[in-house]
Amino acid sequence: MDIALIPNPSKPDAAEAARELLKLLSSRLARDAQGRGGGKGGQVKVMSCPTRADLLQFNPSLVVVLGGDGTILSTAQAMDGLEVPVLGVNFGKLGYLAAYSLEEFLENLDLILAGKAPHTERLMLHGALYPWNNEDSSAIQSLAELEALTPRASGIALNDIVINAGAPFRMIELEVQINQQRTTSFRSDGLIVATASGSTGYNLSAGGPLISPEVAAMVLTPICPHTLSFRPVVLPASSSILVCPHHLNAGSRVNFDGQVNVPIGEDECLLIRRATTRFMLVENPQISHWQMLAQKMHWAESPRL
Question: What's the first-to-final CA gap in the chain, in angstroms?
C-alpha cells in the first residue's frame, strides 16, 4: 500500500502531524511486510499541494488529507481521474468531509490499512463553458451539437458549481434548461448547482435542502432570487443543466468548489453534467452521517434558553 499524506501547508499542526504519521506509517508498513514474509511494504509520502501530475506519478492506494473540508476540496481538484480512497483528518473548523480526528484515525488504523473502513462513492459534477448566441438561443439545437464544440474552460466539483453575480454586484439574469427543456429565466445574485456532498455547504446557507450522501442527485438553488416562487429543485444525477445568461456583470464568474473560478460572458453558456470521475470518501465508522449532522451542525436541535 502506497499512502499519500496531504497536509494543509497553512496549518503548522497539520504539517507536524504529517511528519509524525510519515514515520509511524512507514514503520508500520515495513513491519507488516516482514510479517508476511518480506517483500515491498509500500511507500508513504508527504505531498504538500500536489498537482494532478504529482498524484498520477506517485499513484497512491490511499490519500490521507490533514486539514479541513477546503483541503479535501482542493485535493479533489487534483485527483481528477484518479479514483482512490480519500480519508480526511480534521484540522479545520467544521470538518464535515474530514470525518476523523487524529485520535480516531490512529484508533482505526488497523481497519483503514486493511481497506475495511466504510466508504461512500460521492457524485462529482463537470461544468464547461461553450459559445452561446445571446440574441438567438435557438441556434443551439442539441447537447450533442454543443459538446462537439471546444469549451473555453471546464472544471470539476465535489460540492458545487456556482455562478456568482460579481462586481458591480447587481442582479444577473439567467435562463435554465433542464434536459434540453427550457424552464425559466430569473433574476438573482447567482445560482448554485450542488451535489449531496455539497448540500450541507453553500446550498444549505442559500435555503437548499439537505441530501443524504447515498443519493445520486444534484440540487438547483438560486441565490437570493428576485421572486419568492423560485424554490430549490432536486434533480437526478443523470440530468443535464444548461445555464444561459441574458444579463451578467463585468465580474460575473463560475466557481468550482470555491477552488477554481473563471469569468463567464453573455456570449457563453454553462453546461453542468455528472462527471465521469467519482470521489471515494472513507467514512468514520464511529459516527454516522446523521449523527455528524446533529453533532457538528446542530441539526434538528431544540431551542435552548
Answer: 51
141 and 251 part of one domain: yes
Catalytic one of 13, 32, 69, 257: 69
Q: Confirm if 75 and 86 have CB atoms less than 8 A apart.
A: yes
Output the domain CATH number for residue 181: 2.60.200.30
Which tens digit of pLDDT belongs to each residue from 193-210? 999 999 999 999 999 999
Write down the residue that cell numbers 517483500 correspond to.
39
Dump strand ranges (E) for 91-204: 119-122, 125-131, 153-157, 160-164, 172-178, 181-188, 190-195
Q: Which domain holds residue 288?
A: 3-122+279-297
- pTM for this structure? 0.92
Count of structural domains, the chain: 2
Known active-site residue 257: no
